[in-house]
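CO-FOLDING WORKSHEET

Operator: S.A.
Ligand of interest: coenzyme A
Run index: 184
Mode: holo prediction, single chain
Checklist:
[x] sequence pasted
[x] SMILES validated
[ ] output reviewed
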Amino acid sequence: METPSIRRRTAEDLPACVDALAAVHACDRYPVDWPADPARWLTPSRLVEAWVAVEGRDVVGHVGLSQLDAATLEPSLAEALGTPAAPVGSITRLFVTPRRRGHGQAARLLEVARKEAANLGMSLILDVSDDSHAAIALYESAGWRRVVSARADWLNAAGEHALLHYYVSPETARKPGRAAGLYE
Ligand SMILES: CC(C)(COP(=O)(O)OP(=O)(O)OC[C@H]1O[C@@H](n2cnc3c(N)ncnc32)[C@H](O)[C@@H]1OP(=O)(O)O)[C@@H](O)C(=O)NCCC(=O)NCCS
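OUTPUT RECEIVED:
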């Protein structure tokens, strides 16, 4: 099997991204509820950039980088980060289609987004629901550090308010500031 190539997402990729997301949703309920407009869901308002892993005409993986509004950060996360001088970015909409898993695609996508955030001088975070075991294993194997956890306002597949774990990238954890010291 050839290694899929990773490149910046274009508008023309969106239908194939929606097909890939449908396969992921059917397998994992990610996202928990199928969005009314999946292409829009893949393009949140503060998206900076998105990348796709492609195999021929098929999208087999996806990741986005969003910029967060520091004023709307979850309070315990804002406290953990201190007052970041740099803009805060977030990994978003990361998934790999079920048949292409276990070959390092997500790790590669995460790395591309992490490098872009570093180039842009962003601090970088992500959140993950506590029932997303594969994703948690991925982030921890890539050196991301959990800083706080908090309940979300949306419901998980069990109908409970999801417990979100917030992680900071390896670089962000090394920056002087409160997040760096929290889990030493
Ligand atoms: C999480 C997800 C993106 C991982 O995709 P993937 O391409 O299979 O992941 P990779 O092959 O890059 O895995 C890299 C590392 O992550 C860890 N990992 C990934 N999946 C894992 C699993 N199911 N169990 C244990 N560890 C896992 C391993 O350490 C792995 O390294 P290794 O293969 O050398 O052991 C994929 O399972 C997915 O799309 N899940 C549904 C959507 C989702 O949860 N997205 C994240 C939202 S926050």
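REVIEW:
The two ends are 41 Å apart (CA to CA).
The helical segments are 14-28, 38-41, 75-81, 105-119, 133-141, 170-174, 178-182.
[x] output reviewed
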